[in-house]
Amino acid sequence: MANLGPGRPRLTQRRRQGTTPRAEILDAAAELFTTKGYANTSTRAVADAVGIRQASLYHHFAAKDDILDALLAQTIAGPAELARRMAEEPDAAVTKLYALALFDVRQLRAARWNLGALYLLPELRTERFATFRRHRDDLREHYELLAADSAAAAGQPGDVAILPFRLVETVIGIRSDEESAAAETERLIPDAIVRIVGHPGDPAAVRTAAQALLIRLGDIVPESD
Amino acid sequence: MANLGPGRPRLTQRRRQGTTPRAEILDAAAELFTTKGYANTSTRAVADAVGIRQASLYHHFAAKDDILDALLAQTIAGPAELARRMAEEPDAAVTKLYALALFDVRQLRAARWNLGALYLLPELRTERFATFRRHRDDLREHYELLAADSAAAAGQPGDVAILPFRLVETVIGIRSDEESAAAETERLIPDAIVRIVGHPGDPAAVRTAAQALLIRLGDIVPESD
């Protein structure tokens, strides 16, 4: 999607996170959308924040909603890739569920901007964002299948399966209220998920197995869009 | 705060939820803020949706942020009042925690508009909403104290105490994604909280005690602002 061809000369020095103009635009937009609001931010303001002309921005993104779509995709690309790669692994469902929750909490915590706060925008319910919603629903389904299998393995009813995905996303609210989510959320949230699905063992043992699984799978580098 | 004195004649028949002009303005604004977005909604649009003149709206609210502030206050008034009234009761902390979560999930589910979706607005981090943020922090602290006491009674570490408040608020994301939160969330979420704080007994027993406590306390009618 990105057009990395020559644009106009920069108005100012690069001062944005990112190694390409496209990455700088995304970083600037992420800051403005999360701190000023999506509706309150124009593509002109994004271009100004990057230090490029608005016409140069349009080389990369035809409209503001294309920028939002690319940013939202970033928030789920990593855990979605992990879920795909875990499918072939022989580990117990509760181990995979822990690994997915741990990885996802970690990336939601570490992301430079709290982009998950944009999930509740009314704009996301429009047709324009149907593809993003479908991808996020796919990720949610991965969580729900792993949680249902974990509950079944523990002899528990599967109706709790809706909760782990939601508990992971509470990192977004914590960041919004407290600027950052404490490092301990990377243990507290996956541990709580183990308890919610009724797993009888010590969450610490599940954690150890999940960490080994993540190491075995290596770095999760999502396909770029 | 409300000025219920005579305004101008209505342009159209009342068609809003609410028995007073003020309540109708709040209902119309809640619909527009949650479906079109806060930044995308003018006070003029709110007045139009009620069928009153903009000048009449200003009898009740001096500015758009005053409407938002009143709506946000509604989202926490009930559980905050319940937390106050439970303070004197002799029940176990885990029973009070269950009662608070059950009551709060119920009101977040039942509210006509999903106002919690507005918690993540960047506007809420401004000085204008410091009072609302303080009141919500007070409610969060009630949850955290009850959760810490519940964990201590179960011989568990208290660091999980941050999670119950967050898990209750996942109703907001569920409503945003699925239009409504299923009735079973009124059982699933408080039951999950009982497991998270490490309570060794059956959540169903805690639920029975919590329901009895809620009945004993009678209807929770928050003070109107």
TrEMBL record, chains A, B:
Name listed for the protein in its UniProt record: TetR/AcrR family transcriptional regulator
Signal peptide segment? none
Where are the annotated segments for Disordered?
1-20
Question: One matching Pfam family, short form?
Answer: TetR_N
Record's keyword terms, sorted:
DNA-binding, Transcription, Transcription regulation
Q: Which domain of life is it from?
A: Bacteria
Which residue windows are transmembrane per the record?
A: none
Q: Which residues form the HTH tetR-type domain?
A: 19-79
PANTHER family according to UniProt: HTH-TYPE TRANSCRIPTIONAL REGULATOR BETI, HTH-TYPE TRANSCRIPTIONAL REGULATOR RUTR
Q: Which organism is it from?
A: Nocardia rhizosphaerae
Annotated region of DNA binding: 42-61
High-level lineage? Bacteria, Bacillati, Actinomycetota, Actinomycetes, Mycobacteriales
